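Sample log: Arylsulfatase.
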Amino acid sequence: MNKTIWLTGVGLACLPTLLCAKQNTPPNILFILCDDMGYGDLACYGQPYIHTPNIDRMAQEGMRFTQAYAGSPVSAPSRATLMTGQHTGHTHVRGNKEYWRGVPMVKYGNNEEYSVVGQEPYDPQHKILPEIMKDKGYRTGVFGKWAGGYEGSVSTPDKRGVDEFYGYICQFQAHLYYPNFLNRYSRAMGDTAVVREVMEQNIQHPMFGKDYFKRKQYSARIIHDKALEWIDRQDKEHPFVGFLTYTLPHAELARADALNILFVNIC
């Protein structure tokens, strides 16, 4: 792609980097939000153990902030301040309230799940970033954690200016890195609403207990690959904005087996 690309990292660092410019050409934008990342978690802020060379390069070529504040100490309302640009007192979302109590259960293999999951919806009267960018002619994708409305609510990705979504509607479920299902909304695949995509290999094993670790469909990798596939499908005629709201490094602190060897000597 020859168009302008901005990479915006949120989680203390890595702010807009202009890689290539054309006058009067709308830039392509990647907005990266790493869940629960702290000030000292990146090498560009002095952390010596985990290598983050690409993020460090973004920080070197762009800007680093050494004093910044989140909108809230917990996930859903903090994300609401980012999406709406409003103070927590005005965003309608005030906490990580779950919407699964009192709903029927469904089964995936021998594992039970709530038939509806998610958090308090964003107020439909409050315009959010994907809607703003959509109005400006952008194609929009969100990959990772949504936490802006429970399944079937007035504020799911399909109703909020998002062309493609893949990840977790529910921020609580996002604490499981080997889940029973992930959520998807893809106009390209003919989806008319958010659906559940079952992790067929994972549901062969229990959701709890030692056999949970026999599950092999690692959500962080799956979500990242879906994001890259979406980016690769974009054309030169339409600008795009991708919101990469990744679950790493938040608990459950699980990692792919192939990465274990990299940190074997770190307590």
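Observation: The chain has one domain: 69-263.
Observation: The first strand starts at residue 5 and ends at 10.
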